[in-house]
């Protein structure tokens, strides 16, 4: 592309001319005056007078409307002749950063998307994986824990929730292995402690319910009936935790892990930071996580994971590990 030759190019489109202007202003060591721009940037002409000045003003405004920061500074020391430049530090985007939840959503979206342009999306997704800061967990395949049927159910339920439609499906509880049909107004689908849940209003029971996707059997059917129950003014995740609070205990916790810690444990954290005393280790911060799940996950990951707080969980894990050692020593003594 001819963008900085000082040659009049009448066939250059406005978009290409504006791109030429951006490149010129980015690469100039100093500030360019309007006359210098018309003389050196392809698409302008040094001899087209007022029309050329108006063209430059329109292009300058178009770039500003796009959010491109053009720096202006006097070039003659008197403030009468302005110069223009785009400083690279103002133009470049800040490094991308994602929370573990955001990385999960990106990964899940890549698994569910099958439309046009998938190749380009996959290329960008791979680049995010490659370029991600080593101090944070990578884009881990959290959704791979779900079966293909569960991913299909998740998609149907999410779309029904967005469209405020009613669905039917067969479901069994942890106590009853025989499935029965449920008619539900879904409010959303959310992941919690390694499982996917549908949160919604059960029409037959006239109550809010949560449904673990792994306990659904068969397809989810979207009906013609619109949703009628008013949705609560709290998040779906908060509803889920309220519903499970009777059978689960939730705590806030901090866990330190090394590079060999399981992906499941790292991905479940609400925040991941580098350990202050060792950049090879990370601190996982959990907000309202299942006490039993975290204890079991840390025990399964020993010695690669260590609970730092709360103190009760620290002692619980230590006691469990001591029992394991005692049993091992007792068995060794009898052999």
Automatic annotation (TrEMBL):
Residues 154-217 form the WYL domain. Residues 251-324 form the WCX domain. Coiled coil: none annotated. InterPro entries: CBASS_pafABC_assoc_protein, WCX_dom, WYL_dom. Pfam families: WCX, WYL. This is Uncharacterized protein.
